[in-house]
Amino acid sequence: MLKSLMVAKAKEELEQEVIVKEEEKQRYLAERAPPLNTSGLSLAQLQDLCRELHAKIDVVDEERYDIEAKVMLNTREIKDLNIKVLDLRGKFKRPNLRRVRVSADAILRSLLGSKHKVSMDLRANLKSVKKEDTEKKRPVEDSDWRKNVEAMSGMEGRKKMFDAAKGPAQ
């Protein structure tokens, strides 16, 4: 619904713009080319009027030709510059960007410069874990797992699994 309202509004504005442009064109033509009054003029006066009109036409044609030449020159320059840009893009390969680890302090220092005094040590607030406890538990888990696999292999292991499944259900 919003899209249809926007399209309708744009259509109305476009119609108004066309009407305004037409009115401006009529006003401009009324100023620049007043209607000719040829009734009651002699042959000599008509010839003078024609000469004046031809002189004005020549001036307008010269201006139009100059403007067209400027436009052609500008379009040619734009095409040449576009070709140069495309050539330069083709010659240089963009390097693969690498991820860089930068600490929050380094980012703040680069942004704020020497004004940065607050340290953002985020690791200070983390809970510390003892490494000894984790190392002791790991070998035990590995050995238990291996024993389990050996114990459960073959028909005896399947029977144990079946019995274990029955046991808690009872």
From TrEMBL:
<comment type="similarity">
    <text>Belongs to the troponin I family.</text>
</comment>
<feature type="coiled-coil region">
    <location>
        <begin position="7"/>
        <end position="63"/>
    </location>
</feature>
<feature type="compositionally biased region" description="Basic and acidic residues">
    <location>
        <begin position="129"/>
        <end position="149"/>
    </location>
</feature>
<dbReference type="GO" id="GO:0003009">
    <property type="term" value="P:skeletal muscle contraction"/>
</dbReference>
<keyword id="KW-0007">Acetylation</keyword>
<dbReference type="InterPro" id="IPR050875">
    <property type="entry name" value="Troponin_I"/>
</dbReference>
<dbReference type="GO" id="GO:0060048">
    <property type="term" value="P:cardiac muscle contraction"/>
</dbReference>
<comment type="function">
    <text>Troponin I is the inhibitory subunit of troponin, the thin filament regulatory complex which confers calcium-sensitivity to striated muscle actomyosin ATPase activity.</text>
</comment>
<keyword id="KW-0175">Coiled coil</keyword>
<dbReference type="GO" id="GO:0003779">
    <property type="term" value="F:actin binding"/>
</dbReference>
<dbReference type="Pfam" id="PF00992">
    <property type="entry name" value="Troponin"/>
</dbReference>
<protein>
    <submittedName>
        <fullName>Troponin I, slow skeletal muscle-like protein</fullName>
    </submittedName>
</protein>
<keyword id="KW-0009">Actin-binding</keyword>
<dbReference type="GO" id="GO:0005861">
    <property type="term" value="C:troponin complex"/>
</dbReference>
<feature type="region of interest" description="Disordered">
    <location>
        <begin position="129"/>
        <end position="170"/>
    </location>
</feature>
<dbReference type="InterPro" id="IPR038077">
    <property type="entry name" value="Troponin_sf"/>
</dbReference>
<dbReference type="InterPro" id="IPR001978">
    <property type="entry name" value="Troponin"/>
</dbReference>
<keyword id="KW-0514">Muscle protein</keyword>
